[in-house]
Amino acid sequence: MSIQDGSRLIFGYSVFISNDQTTYSHPLQLGMKFHTAFQDGTILMTKNFGGRTKYGPRVVTHIMKNASISDTWAEHQKQIQALETAGKQIDRQISFQAFSDISYEA
Questions:
Q1: How would you classify the pairing of strands 43-47 and 59-63?
Q2: pLDDT at 1 (0 to 100)
Q3: Of 51, 16, 50, residue with least CA distance to 36
């Protein structure tokens, strides 16, 4: 957290990448979000808090209000498997720019 111009609080959060380089996660003030991008442009987002519910047209959203981080992660993995079974392929371009592009829409 930092103070900008003496009157604005700016929060910064860590961004994590899964060991298999398929998923970004980041904690927010309200909970955790997980993002996985697919080669066709689909973005899977799973979060464990409410708030905003409408995202870009390419975003598949799963909201698990008040779920633990481990339960939210397990659900995200389950949804990745479902999308892969449907023929989608994960986009494994892991970079800050890729995360920035994903988080802009989701």
A1: parallel
A2: 60
A3: 16
State in Å, rounded, how far the first CA of the chain is from the last one: 22
pTM of the model: 0.82
Boundaries of every domain in the chain: 2-105
Backbone phi and psi for residue 59, each to the nearest 5 degrees, phi listed first: -95, 125
State the pLDDT at residue 53.
76
CA dist., res. 87 & res. 82, Å (int): 9
- pLDDT attached to residue 95: 81
Spans in the chain with pLDDT lower than 50: none
Q: How far apart are CA 26 and CA 89, in angstroms?
A: 22
Give DSSP secondary structure letters for 33-63: EEEEEBTTS-EEEEESS-S-----TTEEEEE
